[in-house]
What does this fold into?
Amino acid sequence: MQILKLVITIVIFFVLHRWIGKYPTPLPLSKDRKREILETIALWVFSVVVASMFMVSRTPGELAAPSNELWGLISLIQLVPFIVGPLLFVLLVNKWTAKDLGFSMPSGRAVTIYAIAVFAVIGIIPIFLGIEPIPVSDLLWALYVTAFVEEFFFRAIIQGKLERALGQNKAWFYGGILFGLAHVVTNTFVRGLDIGPGVIELAGQIIAGWIFGIIYMKTRSLLPSFVAHYVTDFRLGSIIVRLFL
It folds into this structure.
C-alpha cells in the first residue's frame, strides 16, 4: 500500500510539474541572499525543534488520543512557532504584504482545478474501501493543524523566502525536503514506523511537499494548496460519509 501511494504521488508530481499550468514570473531575488537563507534555516529549525521537543515529551498514546488540555497545548505549540513568530518576522523585518504571503485569489486556473480534483479523488477512498470515517473532531482539527499551519509555514514563509534566495526551482525543491524532514519525529515517535516504511513515508512526504509547493508557486495563492492538502488523507470521503451516507 505504501509503495502504491508513493508511485501515485510521483505521477501526480510529474504531471503537475511538466504539463499543468505555467510557472509565473519569479519573485525578485533578495539583495542579501545569504541572509535570506540563514533566516529561512533559523525559522525552520526553531519551529520544528519546538514542535518535536513537545511531541517527544508526550507518549504516543497521549498524542493519538489527546485530552482537551493537550489539544489546547498543541494549538499553542502550533500557533507560536509556525504562525505568529514567522508572520511577525516577515512583516516587520522583511516588509512582506498579504499578497507576499499568498493571501490572494489563485492566478492559475488549470493548476487549481487539477490540484483540487486529484486530491479530492484521493480523499474519497474511504467510501469505496469501507475505511472507518475520521472522527469529526479530527476533521475540524485538520483544517488548522494539517492544512493551514503547514501550508502557511512551509509554502508562504519557507518557500517564499527560498524563492527570493535561490530562485523558483530550488525553492520548491528544497522547500519540499524541509517539509518532509519536519515529519521525521512524527513518523518515528508518534506513528512508530520502522526504518523501511519510515524511509518510504519520508520520500512520499518530500514529494508531497514538492507538489504543494508547485501548486502554491504556480497559483501564487495559499487557497488551492490548502484545499488540496486538506481533502487528501481520506478526509473528503469521511466528510461525505458523515453528511450523506
Q: What stands out?
A: The mean pLDDT is 95. The chain has one domain: 2-13+30-244. The CA atoms of residues 63 and 239 lie 23 Å apart.
